[in-house]
Amino acid sequence: MKTLVGPFSQLLTMEGLPLKGALSDSLMKVITGGALLLDGEMIAGAGSFEELRQKYPDAELREIEGDSVCMPGMIDVHTHICWGGSRAGDYASRIAGKTYLEIAGEGGGINVSVRGTREASPGELLEGLRQRALRHLREGVTTCEVKSGYGLDRESELKILRVINQADQELPIDLIPTALCAHIRPFDFEGTERQYLDHVLEEILPAIKDEKLAGRADIFIDQGAFTKEDGAYFLGKASDLGFRLTVHADQFTPGTSGLAVRAGALSADHLENISEEDIDFLAASSTVAVALPGCSVGLGMKYAPARKLLDRGASVAISTDWNPGSAPMGDLLMQAALISAAEKLSSAETFAAVTFRAAAALDLKDRGFLKKNMLADFILFPTGDFREILYNQGKLKPSRLWKKGMEV
Fold first, then answer.
1. pLDDT digit string, tens, across residues 234-281
2. Which DSSP letter does residue 251 get?
3. What is the pairing mode between strands 400-403 and 406-407?
4. Contact (Cβ atoms closer than 8 angstroms) between residue 223 and residue 233
5. Which residues are within 8 A (CB) of 44 and not within 5 positions of it... i.e. 6 or more apart?
6. What residue ranges define each of the domains in the chain, with the CATH number in brackets?
7. CA nearest 83: which of 131, 116, 123?
8. Looking at residues 333-341, what average pLDDT do you find?
């Protein structure tokens, strides 16, 4: 039996908006007195409540009382929310004046999380991931990418990805695993960065593929991680193994996003220091530019130039980079509101960046819009005006949420 949910004060379907380029709010379709018709996990129709009620009189009615703005469930395309241990010491050092790279050079940084994650049991990792994923869900995130990358040896990377897959089966939120075995060369690997990448390509990624733990691979190319030459080598080999690609690009130094484009990566993430030339190169491609404002806040550095990217024609998504080191906040809506104010992004551009443009960064074609034949993933805000959502800078949270047609 079909279910009719509504009426909503405003329904933002995001339908008809382009995947790339700047967006004005006037382009965003806002249906007053709207509703969604559900058929199991999928949307069977979207439009006027009164019209859908007349057309489908036998549909079960889930009436919405009071003010409500309905929009697609948010999608976070870049997180590291499966970890063990804490980086509070790193954060204290950073706000006292040390840089991220200085802390890493002194033995802090990612390797602290590697030690903590290796020491954690699968049960401990699962519980931490469960808590973070469910908090994300409560705050309106219905799909969340989760990277490995804090194990950096074969068994630890497999442990992390098994935990992510287990959590995906147990929780209502969709978790999309990514193999970030090429995060950095770990402290205990005896060999060069290229030799470590060969170890990943020959020993770890094939095991991940055999167990079907992830279909996506990522690499961090920058100071303290891997060179552009090593990055290009890894991306080519990982693609040959059948992995879809994403790249940590242009965070501290420019020149990496071009590698992502040439490798056919789904997304290039960070981009705080992208060059003018690469803005144009990225904008002309199908690779999604992913801004990570939580990392900018956590490190006290500039935001990715989202305004320039959009004006040049790029597709821009916004994600949290939720991790124990540089971006511990993990609040997608608040971060989207912060970067929208700093970069002068319209409501349409900001909502697109956490819905259908984010879906494109994960190559997910069944979500991000509220229209027929899409997943019934949607959230309600307790307001009658969609402008209140960003105006409240992340403090107006969803009051109700549906995932795959079921209210959570």
1. 999 999 999 999 999 999 999 999 999 999 999 999 999 999 999 999
2. S
3. antiparallel
4. no
5. 2, 37, 38, 372
6. 3-72+369-407 (2.30.40.10), 75-361 (3.20.20.140)
7. 116
8. 98
